[in-house]
Design brief:
With about 130 residues, the protein is α+β, with helices and mostly antiparallel strands. The protein has one domain: 60s Ribosomal Protein L30, Chain: A. The chain contains 2 helices and 6 strands, in the order βββαβαββ. Strand 4, helix 2 and strand 5 form a beta-alpha-beta unit. Helix 1 runs parallel beside helix 2. The longest helix has 18 residues. The radius of gyration is 15 Å and the shape is globular. The N and C termini lie close together (about 5 Å). The structure holds amino-acrylate. Amino-acrylate (NAK) binds next to helix 2 and strand 5.
């Protein structure tokens, strides 16, 4: 499978850890990951955005792993933030959790299902 990042020359080029588009070819499997929430396997919801963001990403990675995939397979992810004030921390933590990997992405400020959850992350991966 080949992933080819695309940033059109005649449009805004992001500098915050994502690409404007991702072309994939030669893949045989797609994985659609539901919104991953900041809830641990034991039902615990950690305090604060930093801990919740890291946990939601670990949950994304767990779903990828369960399907025999990993972070290198990510093509697109979409993050729903409960509050715009978390936007810059979200970028920083996302970049750390992805080890600098850049994919197509969207960040939306939204009401999350449970008020205790400060974000939710859905993803698409290919292999
Ligand atoms: C995609 C986007 N708005 C961000 O902050 O990474």
């Amino acid at each position: 499978m080949e992933k080819r990042p695309i940033n059109a020359d005649d449009a805004f080029v992001p500098t915050s850890g994502y690409v404007q588009a991702m072309a994939i070819s030669g893949h045989s499997r797609l994985l659609f990951v539901s919104g991953q929430i900041p809830v641990a396997a034991d039902g615990r919801v950690p305090e604060g955005f930093e801990a919740q963001c890291r946990l939601a990403w670990r949950n994304v990675e767990a779903q990828l792993k369960a399907a025999g995939l990993g972070l290198d397979n990510l093509v697109l992810h979409r993050t729903y933030l409960a509050d715009r004030r978390h936007a810059l921390d979200n970028r920083r933590i996302r970049s750390e959790m992805l080890g600098g990997r850049e994919t197509a992405t969207t960040v939306v400020i939204a009401g999350i299902f449970d008020e205790a959850w400060l974000l939710e992350i859905e993803a698409i991966a290919a292999a």
